[in-house]
Design a protein that fits this description.
The chain has 206 residues and is α+β, with helices and mostly antiparallel strands. Helix content is 35%, strand content 31%. It has one domain (11-204): 3-Layer(aba) Sandwich (Aminopeptidase), CATH 3.40.630.30. It contains six helices and eight strands; from the N terminus they run ββαααβββαβαββα. β4 and β5 (95-103) form a beta hairpin. InterPro entries: Acyl_CoA_acyltransferase, GNAT_dom.
Length: 206
Amino acid sequence: MPATTPLPVTLTGRHVRVEPLSPDHLDDLFAAGGGDDEVWRWQGGPTPHTPQELGEKLTELLANGAYVPFAVIHRASGRAVGWTTYMDIDAAHERLEIGSTWYGRAHWRSAVNTETKLLLIGHAFEELGMGRVQLKTDHLNVRSQEAIARLGAHREGVLRRHRRRPDGTWRDTVYFSLLADEWPEAKARLEARLVARVEARVEARP
């Protein structure tokens, strides 16, 4: 049987909750990453410097039927700290992409991205029946490439001169993927990394 097209859903982990994105998340999202050029550097389009500008981006994303967008909620604070989406969805061919992802700078290199991807990739393979999950990023975005590689995704190649950046320059796009039969091993590594992060944080407390 073919895979199932994803619908808005809430997925809950220890550190984050991933829930359907809505305008109600706007204030938290602006507090997390509004006006931060480094957060928006690779997102396409100008940095939103006001809640209204970020709201326009949010509204545009919600209106695009090709995406299933999620807010990422930091459970300890109860606040939205970024968003992410399922995109390029093709249930007939059992594949989708996770992308258009950003988090406030305070949550970079934390458990937030690791657990968010653990929840979304797991849902795609284990509940939706997908056979392939892909991720992509600008070839200059080394931080993103390293984060994707840490998920256990395989670097597949580069599409040269693939997309024009907002400043008019051309980006090459680096593609990564995970396949369903690779997921159990990757999942175990991600779960172990989350445990290690928690243990390291406990040991670092005075």
